[in-house]
Amino acid sequence: MDIRLENVKYTYSPGTPFAYQALQGVSLHIPHGRYVAIIGHTGSGKSTLIQLLNGLLLPTEGTMQVGEFTLPPKKKKGMEKLRQQVGLAFQYPEYQLFEETVRKDVAFGLINMGLPPEMIPGRVDAALRLVGLDPDKYGDKSPFMLSGGQMRRVALAGVLVMNPQVLILDEPTAGLDPAGHHAILDMIARVHREEERTTILVTHSMEDAARYADYLYVMNEGRIWMEGTPHQVFQDPVKIRQAGLELPEITRFIFEFNERVRISGSKIAPLPFDIFDAGMLTNELARRFRRKEGSRG
Amino acid sequence: MVVVSKAIIRLADVSFSYEGAEERALQGVSFTVEKGEFLSIIGHNGSGKSTLAKLLNGLLLPSEGKIEVNGIPTADDAHIWEVRKVVGMVFQNPDNQFVAPTVEDDIAFGMENIGVPPVDMEARIQDALEQVNMTGFRTAEPNRLSGGQKQRVAIAGALAIQPAVLVLDEATAMLDPRGRKEVLEVVQRMNREAGMTVIQITHYLEETLDSDRIIVMDGGRLVGEGTPESVYQQVDWLRRLGLDVPFACDLQYRLQQKGFRFSTLKMTGEGVLDSLWTSD
Q: Which Gene Ontology cellular-component terms appear in the entry (chain A) (predicted)?
């Protein structure tokens, strides 16, 4: 389902001394099936934006179209449908686990939406498999006996089981160690490839945004500050820094590398800016410096 | 010859089990922390890092072994507040650390706990907020601050106790890059200028690069320690432990496998560039 926002504004506590305009006119179009990342410092409007996308908040001004839903809606009815189609996994989603068993926890949303009971176990087990948990091994365990990374997978299964068309993940790897971090993001990338849906990743990590997403939105002061492919966005370090962000380390390295090439007047070819993988960077460097050695010998 | 010890914290063969748990969360951990040291502790989730942090100021007590802070055993009930005066803690979740309606009240609360005379509080609040660049927020409500601001207030609360040691238990995990930088800069300055001992537990390897020492935890045991240069040289070993290495170290490791040689491990991209440009 396509997502379109037209000049959407959002103000918290309007008409009170605490009124705060978190979104100052956001327009964007996310075509179905894209993997997008939203980046921006705390308070830039990211969380407000994703809560608007699944109808938890409604625009104060402007309109938005999320699939067949127009927001703000003419009547409140039907909003739970939107929330089924736009799955939102909050930060630290495992804090919301509460059932006695993993299967019961994942089934919770399905039971709530009134799915016939005989259809539930199959969907639950499929969702667990999708997030890389063997249902027979983990299904009847208490979610609280699992590791942090596994609990996070259970919580994500609870969102995926609803089969949302849009999956929004707010910092899905916060607090995980490096191995768990990569495992979760690789899993999300696989699910994105396997299932026909839009994935929206909210992240503080420029590295993850660059590596996993096709398209980036940089938020700053309640606005879309920049947008484009990672390659396009990270070519403008000045604008990135104005948004209170940094370039991915690998991009910073490429900038410094090219600067040295320029200053030294060396014949080494500058590095392209669309490298976001250390292995690729290594190959490019090896090629350049081997050539140099060869010319000497 | 008299050996003058600079150790401020000493762990001797410390083990810890949570109630009802089959496995020990910590197993025979021994090390000392020197006064003025900047120590980082890394390890995967469940490696025992956070348990270790809570043991350092007596929030948890060792099941076996002994921890001394300034020579006082943390298990000594009568002197636990002495221990907590020496070791300040800042935890991961900025939202779980506030008890009072305003920033200044919150900082005062911690001081009341250790019996700071009310006449001294004003100056200490002012001083602590200055250290973390938050003087403009004295009367603000903690829950209206950004994550980085909250954590800086939490640090100010710890600083007002005037601890000799500050323990940060993944204190930057929930912050954005800017918030992380703010917090790291504050503690690095406190370490450099005020000689405060800092023990930080973190998943962000970049935050460990300027440490005097890194301790690596796995399965509740201390499995390695050394300078950042020596620890991050062991790329395969760290990966087997579910850890990673900083970008510059990863890049050098990969280049080494392609036949590049580096005389020393560089911790920054600039360092790698220097090596590339100066080597043959």
A: ATP-binding cassette (ABC) transporter complex
Nearest to A218 by CA among A46, A38, A41: A38
| Inter-chain touch B174–A175, beta carbons under 8 Å | yes
Residue owning tokens 């395969």: B236
Alpha-carbon distance A14 to nearest alpha carbon in chain B (angstroms)? 16
Q: What is the pLDDT of residues A176-210, one digit of tens each?
A: 888 888 889 999 999 999 988 999 999 989 999 99
Cβ atoms of A166 and A86 closer than 8 Å: yes
Q: What are the sequence ranges of the domains in chain A?
A: 3-247, 250-296
pLDDT digits (tens, 9 = 90+) for A267-281: 899 999 999 999 999
- Taking 90 as the threshold, does the pLDDT of residue A1 lie above it? no
Domain range A3-247, CATH architecture: 3-Layer(aba) Sandwich (3.40)
| Residues in Cβ contact with B122 at an 8 Å cutoff, skipping those fewer than 6 apart | none
Å from B2 to nearest chain A CA?
43
| Cβ distance of B273 and A260 shorter than 8 Å | yes
Fold of B7-225: Rossmann fold (3.40.50)
Interchain contact, B46 vs A178, CB within 8 Å? no
Domain parsing of chain B, residue ranges: 7-225
pLDDT for residue A133 is more than 60: yes
Partners of B178 on chain A (C-beta within 8 Å) are 41-42, 244-245
Q: What is the ipTM of this complex?
A: 0.84
